[in-house]
Design goal:
The protein is built from two helices and two strands. With about 40 residues, the protein is α+β, with helices and mostly antiparallel strands. The chain has one domain. Strands 1-2 form a two-stranded antiparallel sheet. The chain is elongated and about 30 Å long.
């Protein structure tokens, strides 16, 4: 996993759309509610 995605996933700021298949070519990442709150603070 990319070095910039892992910390965001670990903090709960991003979420995988298909967590059961992390290496799938159809994998996408979405901003979580916590991520949107963090962005509002910045």
């Amino acid at each position: 996993m990319n070095n910039y995605l892992h910390p965001l996933l670990k903090e709960g700021l991003l979420a995988m759309t298909d967590p059961d298949s992390p290496r799938s070519p159809k994998q996408r990442y979405v901003t979580t509610k916590k991520g949107f709150e963090w962005l509002k603070e910045k």
